[in-house]
Design a protein that fits this description.
There is one protein chain. The protein folds into 2 domains: 236 residues, no CATH class; 220 residues, no CATH class. 24% of the residues lie in helices and 29% in strands. The chain contains 12 helices and 20 strands. Helix 2 crosses helix 3. The chain is elongated and about 80 Å long.
Length: 488
């Protein structure tokens, strides 16, 4: 879980170096704090941006814009394979007059990151261009700030070169250092007035001396970072051909609300958030291979919240494989009140031919563990059942148990579990009795079992892959008797 602080960040007085290949000293965190107080933070509309920075505007337009009326109307710049939305621009102006312009970025492909196109002024009229990506940890921070040392784990900085174009500039990924961050107010853009439409930056609605401006859009708070793009260790551009030395002052900017970013409070959003976590992705890839499915035991990882007071913000993955040939082994670790997730596989074959065949789908045991143990632990630690999950990988498909409700669904007791075991076997055998059965038959029968026999409103099953998730429900009238609802 994320380590969060509920007050404004107290600055650390230490010195960073801008590039690993140089020994140039930068300002201390307190220096950044002092200079940031003099920054002018505001939003511009498309016409204001055009009027304020005509040379930059023309460089963007002439170099990147597709020549069409549609592009003009959309107020977008087309850059390589992505579109920059210039309807609104977030500007941070330093006391030395240099500016950082931040735009929202749109791609045709789905991304679970908030992506911004950022232009950072180095010399007068010369800008470094970046794509800066923020994961859900940053997007969900709101007013609470994680430590400077943690921020770089959740931000990607891709250097795109210079504007105007500098042929010697080399595109590369950089690792950001964050000497300073602050929670700031970005004023809303003003309504249509002559002063505002001329691009005069003096009209900042709701600021002292300008209370008479009527905001056309509300302002908002943002966590603004001072980013120093540094060489990741062999991955940056050749010295002298990378970014300039002027710090980037920007934050996760999304003026249009959701803007294609998932709501991480939904099961779809939670699944997307998990796949942004390297630890989860590593375990998913580890157990989602034929060699694991052909073992004579289940490979299992229990997922545990970090200890209270720990500097670590990442969950702990504890290997707790079942014994050989155990089909329904107990997992004492799930009783640990800090365990909220389970990652495991189902085998292709059982050791004992008299056992019922392995089910390549969540079982009654999986559901009992999820409802009785993982969900209460998630609620106790985070105030929400939505953070609990159980991942089951199989050679027929991968599935995730999630819960979308807010009410306690009630435990599955021992007597109910005995009955559910018999029901589970009967429904599973219905699928296997068909000589031409497919995985869709297994899904349909066991989804019916979950709907009719377990009957826990809010319990949801998702068919998942690393880049997609689909909610699946039993529905007799749907194709293959499965209602499918893809995650956005």
């Amino acid at each position: 879980m994320k380590t969060k602080f509920s007050h404004y960040l107290l600055m650390m007085a230490f010195v960073f170096t801008l590039f690993s290949c140089t020994s140039e000293l930068l300002q201390t965190g307190q220096d950044y704090h002092n200079s940031s107080n003099q920054n002018l933070v505001r939003q511009l509309r498309y016409n204001e941006f055009k009027n304020e920075s005509p040379n930059l505007f023309e460089n963007l337009k002439l170099k990147f814009a597709k020549k069409s009326k549609k592009t003009e109307q959309a107020k977008n710049f087309m850059i390589n394979d992505f579109s920059v939305d210039a309807e609104y621009v977030y500007v941070s102006e330093h006391d030395d007059g240099k500016k950082t312009y931040t735009f929202t970025l749109e791609k045709g492909e789905k991304s679970w990151y908030l992506e911004n196109y950022v232009l950072n002024e180095q010399d007068r009229g010369v800008f470094d261009a970046y794509i800066i990506r923020y994961d859900s940890t940053i997007v969900n921070q709101k007013s609470q700030i994680i430590g400077n040392e943690e921020v770089p784990k959740h931000i990607q900085v891709e250097y795109l070169g210079q504007i105007p174009d500098n042929p010697s500039a080399q595109k590369a990924m950089y690792c950001p250092q964050v000497p300073f961050q602050e929670y700031i107010w970005v004023p809303g853009v003003c309504s249509s007035s002559q002063q505002h439409e001329t691009g005069d930056p003096a009209c900042l609605c709701g600021t002292p001396g300008h209370m008479d401006c009527t905001p056309a859009d509300n302002g908002f708070y943002i966590i603004q970072y001072t980013l120093l793009p540094t060489d990741c260790g062999g991955g940056g551009a050749t010295p002298g051909n990378g970014p300039g030395t002027s710090p980037v002052t920007t934050g996760p900017y999304n003026p249009h609300g959701s803007g294609g970013i998932p709501n991480f409070d939904t099961p779809c959003g939670k699944i997307a958030e998990l796949f942004l976590q390297q630890g989860f992705l590593d375990k998913y890839n580890e157990i989602n291979v034929p060699s694991v499915f052909n073992l004579n035991h289940e490979k299992v990882y229990a997922v545990k919240f970090p200890s209270l007071g720990s500097a670590n913000t990442e969950p702990e993955y504890i290997n707790t494989d079942l014994p050989n040939c155990a089909s329904e082994g107990n997992q004492p670790i799930v009783k640990d009140p800090m365990v909220y997730g389970l990652i495991h596989d189902h085998q292709n074959h059982s050791c004992n031919p008299d056992d019922y065949p392995p089910g390549k789908f969540p079982s009654h045991i999986d559901i009992k563990t999820f409802i009785n143990d993982l969900m209460p632990h998630a609620m106790a630690n985070t105030g929400s059942y939505a953070n609990a999950y159980s991942l089951i990988t199989t050679s027929g498909g991968n599935y995730m148990l999630m819960y979308s409700g807010t009410n306690d669904p009630g435990e599955i007791n021992a007597n109910q579990l005995k009955t559910l075991k018999n029901d589970y076997i009967n429904f599973l055998l219905r699928a296997y009795d068909n000589p031409n059965y497919t995985q869709k038959d297994v899904e349909a029968e066991l989804l019916r079992f979950i709907k009719e026999k377990i009957n826990k409103p809010g319990l949801e099953i998702y068919r998942i892959a690393a880049n997609s998730a689909t909610k699946i429900e039993y529905n007799f009238s749907s194709p293959n008797r499965i209602k499918e609802t893809p995650c956005p």
